TrEMBL record:
CDD domains attached to this UniProt entry: trmE, TrmE_N
GO molecular function, one term: GTPase activity
Binding site for (6S)-5-formyl-5,6,7,8-tetrahydrofolate: 27, 87, 126, 435
Cross-referenced HAMAP family: GTPase_MnmE
Pfam families linked to this entry: MMR_HSR1 (PF01926), MnmE_helical (PF12631), TrmE_N (PF10396)
EC number: 3.6.-.-
Amino acids binding GTP: 232-237, 251-257, 276-279
Organism: Komagataeibacter saccharivorans
A Gene Ontology BP annotation from the UniProt entry: tRNA wobble uridine modification
Protein name per Swiss-Prot or TrEMBL: tRNA modification GTPase MnmE
GO cellular component: a single term: cytoplasm
Record bears the keyword Magnesium: yes
Entry binding sites for Mg(2+): 236, 257
Amino acid sequence: MQERDGHPPVIFALASGLSRAAIAVMRLSGAGTGKIVESLTGRLPAPRRASLRGLWRRDGAEPVLLDRALVLWFPGPDSYTGEDSAELHLHAGPAVINAVADTLVALGARPAEPGEFTRRAFAHGRMDLMQAEGIADLIDAETEAQRQQALAQVDGAQSQLYQKWADRLRTFLAHQEALIDFPDEELPPEVERGLLDGMRVLHDTMQTYLAEGAGAERLRRGLLFAIVGEPNVGKSSLLNALAGRDAAIVSSRAGTTRDAIEVRMVLGDVPVTLVDTAGLRETDDEIEAEGVRRSLFHVKQADCVVQVFTGDVVPEPVEGNSLLVCNKTDLYHAPEGTIGISVLTHSGMDVLRTVLADRARALTSGRAAAPFTRARHRAALEETVHHIGRALDMNWPEMRGEEMRLAMRALGRLTGAVDVEALLDTVFGQFCIGK
């Protein structure tokens, strides 16, 4: 980030996106924001009050009116980024937006990079890394469940839990350091016993949290349900019926579906990608064989396998989590223990939708308080648990202390408390421009 006069440059971005709308919100942030707003409007408005102002370009003999806009001024540190910031609520015509952007560049500002506003907020202590990721998730939330989960993360639910664990680890490490620094002192034996007992409780608590919290990670990314089965059992017809549109080609000819066809939908307030796959059978057709190979790949990746068949014989499940669905119940009787449907007559489809929604909710539910939501979180927590476990196995006090420091370091990476520079580009690069 290039600096001017010891301060990062003023950045700007269209926070409201590029779609056609009545109003476009241009955000600015940086130490020189006040001077730029003064140049555009003549004087700063009162802090945190919307003022209708003319925006002027003043680089020629005569000022040129760019737009009449609502201007809001947020002096730091009481702003989103912690810096002097402003918002220009413009008329959303492309000519207006481009003219204002060109003028901002001429005044010394530059376009923001993805996530740069939130990265500056993190750098100024306005939020920690977990909360920053929660903002990205809130922007991407498709369902009410995702919204609630992301909002809890933004409000600091996870951060507070991890900070409590970090405080306990710090206390344990202080006690361990005392045992190392004063080996000749008559310290009561219950000091070390209490230290080890406390570490075991924390280790078990974190292991339970990891086991119970995986559903939130699935909810954030969405689920994958693969529709599989032999050719001509009605897989593509079922996909179309669930999607409510003709997403896949339907034909009586076996082997019509050669590649995976994906449809995004919501089941049980959970985003689910339904994948229609090639029919599973032995074939000499090179293209169809590749489709079968891809089908088996999707089976391995799927959170739930919807295995469609017809007739009275129940097939062997292709995966342990297979949901056996007997299609064409207008011609066959569904065997016991399977879900009977007829895509042709719509019989049983409401029951199937309910079962799929229940499966989606079950896969994304969990009993953990403030559950983790990303693979990065899980990896850091697993590393923390690993080092605490190693510390408990150590007989040498110095080695135990080192494992505890490594555990604290791993836990600190979650909130950005220690050594996070290498993470920042990855985390904030996922943001949209203007956030």
